[in-house]
Amino acid sequence: MALLASGGSIDVKDRAFNFSPGPAALPTKVLAEARDELLDFRGTGVSVMEMSHRSREFMDMAEAAEADLRTLLNMPREYRVLFLQGGATMQFSAVPLNLLGGKTKADYVHTGHWSAKAIKEARNFCAVHVAASGEASGFNHIPPLSEWRVREDAAYLHICGNETIGGVQFHDYPDLGISLAADLSSDFLSRPLDVRRFGLIYAGAQKNFGPAGLTLVIVREDLLGQAAPTTPTPVNYEVQLGADSMSNTPPTFAWYMAGLVFKWLLRQGGLEAMAACNEAKATRLYEAIDNSNFYHSSVALADRSLMNIPFTLSEPRLDGAFLEGAEARGLLNLKGHRSVGGMRASLYNAVPKEAVVALVEYMAEFERKRA
């Protein structure tokens, strides 16, 4: 880790393996690039954190970031991009405020912790109908489409693409003739995405494409201009678009970091390459769990997340020892969410394959000694 501060070269083996669910691992090369520009942003003599967001230098960076994002997603022209503050949680309110368009109803699919939060917040603004829920089974699967009950007069249908706590993920997205609004915070840019399937996408940066503080919103043009009159300016999509996401000072450093990550993703081969890498990582860990009598995953096979893999030990009393041993080996942030316990390994884009190899080897060693 000393190399990060000294200006020397950095390699995967020089850093701990970070399985944090968020704020999460960032690509080592991106961190090194940011380090090298921290005091002097591209010859300006100041840090990107110190310059005006309306300066030509910052505007050029912002425009390049959006262009790279559009390239990664092959994004159609009729979709607009916002770089906003507030985290994805802010969008739990912003979505109904911007998309209801005079209607009073919205439908939500309940797949776990983050869906529940979105539903609770939306009820402050409209009549929410839960079109489908996985609650009866402890949120260990995505409700089959045959069970969904979507209202024709709903303004939109909302889903959470990947539940970080429960470890369930949509591997395909529904097309039910209604605008689909999706919280894709924890799997955005981890695989190819057909933006045309959605009316609106939002995602917090701190999982797959940057530090906390930035939230991306991608919205289809025909959904703009129908915000409720009481919508606060900072979350009014049309107002923010008219100001290039700068009706108030944006999260400049997080925006800059996201731009670096976009370029890194392009250098890796784009989202197809990331998908192959992420699937290989998840497969390796799931195989270790499934081939063991000591570790267990309760998530339905068809809906298992490639990003967040919760698992339990056969003897919960050993959880502390497992985590202590993992940390001693540089395998960090494996403790499961406080609401469910156990373990959780988050395998976002920046988590290298070597991290999963090291984790699987440690799991096998721990099992041999304790089982």
Number of strands: 14
Principal-axis shape: globular
Low-confidence segments, given as residue ranges, are: 1-7
Reading off the top of the CATH hierarchy, the class of the largest domain is best stated as: Alpha Beta
Radius of gyration from the CA trace?
21 Å
Distance between the termini: 34 Å
State the secondary-structure class: alpha/beta
Which architecture name of the largest domain does CATH use?
A: 3-Layer(aba) Sandwich
* H-E string: HEHHEHEHEEEEEEEHHHEEHEEH
**For this entry, what is the oligomeric state of its chains?**
single chain
State the major sheet: 7 strands, mixed
What is the CATH third-level topology name of the largest domain? Answer: Aspartate Aminotransferase, domain 2
Q: What percent of residues are in strands? A: 15-25%
> If strands are numbered along the chain, what order do they take across the biggest sheet?
2-10-9-8-5-3-4
Average pLDDT, all residues: 93
Domain unit count:
2
Helix content: 25-40%
> Number of helix segments?
10
CATH homologous superfamily placement of the largest domain = Type I PLP-dependent aspartate aminotransferase-like (Major domain)
Give a verbal description of the structure:
The structure is a single chain. The protein has 371 residues and is an alpha/beta fold. The chain has two domains: 56-266, Type I PLP-dependent aspartate aminotransferase-like (Major domain) (Aspartate Aminotransferase, domain 2, 3-Layer(aba) Sandwich), CATH 3.40.640; 269-370, Aspartate Aminotransferase, domain 1 (Alpha-Beta Complex), CATH 3.90.1150. The chain has helices spanning 2-6, 28-37, 56-73, 87-99, 113-122, 237-242, 252-268, 270-290, 319-328, 353-370, and strands at residues 17-18, 79-84, 105-110, 127-133, 157-160, 162-163, 168-169, 180-183, 200-204, 215-220, 295-296, 308-313, 331-332, 343-346. The radius of gyration is 21 Å and the shape is globular. The two termini are 34 Å apart.
